[in-house]
């Protein structure tokens, strides 16, 4: 059981976090060299193409998928969503959580930190393996994994970002980093982000089925 930190922490800025993220690539933003990487035991961050390849997910031992880019392209945001129907994963016996978010500074991804952390934590506590993806596996997916490490593993935001960056080139946008800083402050004060649905906790992969007619009650 990790020991969570509590109490006042030194203030950290978005600029400091960005410098931390680019330090391994000599001050320049780097892109992932691989489509997927295991960034923490049992947690894989990937691009969208990986999430569509069931044979690869099976070979990796993935049991849960967290789509951090759920949505349908529109005139404002084009090419930034991954719209995957739950039946695609249910047929393979995989659990799915979909987070509607765009990779934009104004996106309030922080409202999903609690639910995403519960989903990941539940999978790992029951021996599962989680694939967290967005489009490139750099910003939205990374922000949710970092939030999990902060909420459930007791890491400060700098430690959580460094842990993931050591395994994969990531670069959450300015707004996401600001929300992670706020999460850092919130946890330091002794409070935790809310979990909006009790159904996230205890969710298990559905047994494989040959029918695509079933819909997920949690994620329609």
Automatic annotation (TrEMBL):
Q: Name one GO cellular component term.
A: cytoplasm
- Can you tell me which residues form the catalytic site? 134 (phosphocysteine intermediate)
Catalysed reactions, as listed in the record: O-phospho-L-seryl-[protein] + H2O = L-seryl-[protein] + phosphate; O-phospho-L-threonyl-[protein] + H2O = L-threonyl-[protein] + phosphate
Per the UniProt entry, the Enzyme Commission number(s) are: 3.1.3.16
Phylogenetic classification of the source organism: Eukaryota, Metazoa, Ecdysozoa, Arthropoda, Crustacea
**Stated name of the protein:** protein-serine/threonine phosphatase
Q: Which gene encodes it?
A: Dusp3_2
| One BP annotation, GO | negative regulation of MAPK cascade
Q: Source organism's superkingdom?
A: Eukaryota
Q: Per the database record, which ranges form the Tyrosine-protein phosphatase domain?
A: 31-189
Q: Does the keyword Hydrolase apply?
A: yes
Q: Where is this region: Disordered?
A: 192-220
What's its top-level EC category? hydrolase
Keyword list, A-Z: Hydrolase, Protein phosphatase
Give GO terms: molecular function aspect only: MAP kinase phosphatase activity; protein serine/threonine phosphatase activity; protein tyrosine/serine/threonine phosphatase activity
Under PANTHER family, the record lists: AGAP008228-PA, DUAL SPECIFICITY PROTEIN PHOSPHATASE 3
Q: Which family does it belong to?
A: Belongs to the protein-tyrosine phosphatase family. Non-receptor class dual specificity subfamily.
Pfam families in the cross-refs: DSPc
Keyword Isomerase set for record:
no
């Amino acid at each position: 059981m990790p020991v969570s930190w509590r109490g006042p922490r030194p203030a950290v800025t978005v600029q400091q976090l960005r410098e931390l993220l680019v330090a391994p690539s000599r001050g320049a933003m780097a892109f992932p060299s691989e489509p997927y990487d295991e960034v923490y035991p049992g947690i894989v961050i990937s691009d969208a193409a990986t999430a569509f390849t069931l044979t690869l997910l099976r070979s990796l031992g993935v049991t849960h998928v967290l789509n951090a880019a759920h949505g349908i392209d529109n005139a404002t945001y084009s090419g930034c969503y991954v719209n995957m129907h739950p039946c695609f994963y249910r047929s393979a016996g995989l659990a799915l959580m979909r987070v509607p978010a765009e990779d934009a500074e104004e996106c309030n991804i922080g409202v999903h930190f609690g639910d995403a952390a519960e989903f990941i934590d539940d999978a790992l506590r029951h021996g599962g393996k989680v694939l967290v993806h967005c489009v490139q596996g750099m910003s939205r997916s990374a922000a949710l994994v970092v939030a999990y490490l902060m909420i459930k593993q007791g890491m400060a935001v700098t430690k959580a970002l460094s842990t993931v960056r050591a395994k994969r080139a990531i670069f959450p946008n300015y707004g996401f980093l600001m929300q992670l800083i706020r999460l850092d402050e919130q946890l330091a004060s002794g409070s935790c982000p809310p979990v909006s649905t009790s159904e996230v906790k205890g969710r298990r992969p559905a047994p494989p089925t040959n029918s695509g007619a079933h819909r997920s009650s949690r994620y329609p």
